[in-house]
Specification:
Layout: H1 4-11, H2 13-51, E1 55-58, E2 72-73, H3 76-81, E3 86-101, E4 104-113, E5 127-130, E6 139-143, E7 153-156, E8 159-167, E9 178-182, H4 183-190, H5 195-207, H6 219-227, E10 232-233, E11 235-240, H7 246-257, E12 260-263, H8 264-275, H9 277-307, H10 310-318, H11 323-352, H12 364-390, H13 394-399
Parallel strand pairs: 4-9, 6-8
Antiparallel strand pairs: 1-11, 1-12, 2-10, 3-4, 3-11, 5-8, 6-9, 7-8
Helix pairs in contact: 1-11, 2-8, 2-9, 2-11, 9-12, 11-12
Amino acid sequence: MISLAGRDILHSWGKFVFTGVGLGLLIGVTLSMAGIYRGMVDDAQVMLDNTGADLWVVQQGTQGPYAEPSSLYDDLYRSLLNMPDVEYAANITYLIMQVGHGEQDVSSMVVGVTAGKLGTPGQPRYLVAGRHITRSHYEAIADISSRFQLGERIRIRRNFYTVVGLSKRTVSYNGDPMVFIPLKDAQEAQFLKDNDALVQQRRRNAENPDFNRPGIPDLLAVVNASQSTNTYVNAVLVKLKPGTLPEDAAETIRRWTRLQVYTRTQMESILMDKVIDKSARQIALFLVILSIVSAAIVAFIIYTLTLGKIREIAVLKLIGTKNRTIAGMIMQQSLALGVIGFVVGKITATFWVPIFPKYVLLMPLDSVAGFFAVLAICALASLVAIRMALKVDPAEAIGG
């Protein structure tokens, strides 16, 4: 049996293929936009996963350390370690800053972690190269997206750090690579002042009679030292013993320390609802608009292709071709166009995703849903085209 759809496609295969490729590029952009949204959500979840924490202990009355500033004394973790349900407790600091790399700066989230055995909350859980931080100063672990190499020296404020390890998918909720350094170095970098500011501060202290008393010669030195030392952290990460319910442990810590404690579920809700909410909704809105535009363009392409075959359809009617056969031809061509477009879109999206500066997550479920959505749009558009084709008056069409 001769396939009218196949014969018509072969007759003008170049036009059909190029139309499918153009449609595929549009579908590829739509799939990429969906991947950008997925990647934004995944970045936030990955950041929480990488901490290895069950609880986040932060300053009372705040939603820190990601949505709001939080400040705690760095000796608080000792009190948490004495609680019965706590297995590990570790201080952590977060600084979003520019890390010097040669003549360029890399936007990064600098994380101050406690050097210790593997499994301590806050440390990168998986390394793709190198080792963990073992010294208390001037060592760093960087995510591979930062493009730092093992053994390289990077600059954070005034100090230089040697990259001793590389991790993968350790990023902030903004997608910036994380750079892990020892906690003491991070505390120093967080409030480090330039030399001129230090000189001015010490001059003011010396001129202050409360700090520079004749009978207490060491008071001024103590004041200067206290003002240049940072004894604060942003949060304490807590890992619970197996079998402990996070909600129960969090309530106990709140009651005894009078601090704010968040479980993984609560912290994830804060990130999604307060930190990345507007950006995620904006990307989602762009995705909806792009999907609507794509559907309209698909429908217009199928309608135009059918309109260009009016004379051929009129001839088929004159020779006695059934309406069902004509409708089948249009439907088959529409679905074939949708399949070609989706295949091209999927391939192009897969290849250009690594070029994006931020993480793009292409989910198989999104691809399956997109495939059936494209076929559904093509089928609906073909129904409109079929209705138009069946109303064609052969004499009028050929005569025109």
